[in-house]
Write the structure tokens for this entry.
Amino acid sequence: MTDHDRLFKELISTFFLEFLDLFLPEVRAYVAAGSVDFLDKEIFVDVTSGERLEPDLVAKVRFRGHPAFFIIHIETQDLAQRAFGRRLFRYFARLHDKFDLPVYPIVVFSFSSPRKAQADVYRVEFPNKVVMEFRYDVIQLNRLTWREFVNRPNPIATALMTK
């Protein structure tokens, strides 16, 4: 059986800047070339439930033209999951706390179905107030068409066109 999760992580980490160029050029524009440092596999354990949280890909990068750093966190998800936004927020909070740096969250949905657009926000709200609104970028491969990528000279585009 193919380990899609591992293959996606390997592909994105090998062609990280190309991934940003293709899907998030506005983010790529403020990432300093040569500053990408992939951090060791972070494992966070929820002491109350015993649940292990392992973010897929975490990179420390420098802002172009500035000495400041930030974290890019990419989660790859091959199954639709109802509480996904909550899980992504938990990763965000732990990474932000551990590194004391801004965290830019991205998710790549690679499942075949459902085809409906997946949420890009996790909210905590009450009838009178939104306490928190956590937003993240969503790249949902089953909503993209291969025709948009066929003439792009980008290894990520070539590798993901079949998805």
Q: What stands out?
A: The mean pLDDT is 90. The two ends are 17 Å apart (CA to CA). Strands lie at 37-38, 44-45, 52-53, 57-62, 69-77, 103-109, 121-126, 129-135, 137-140.
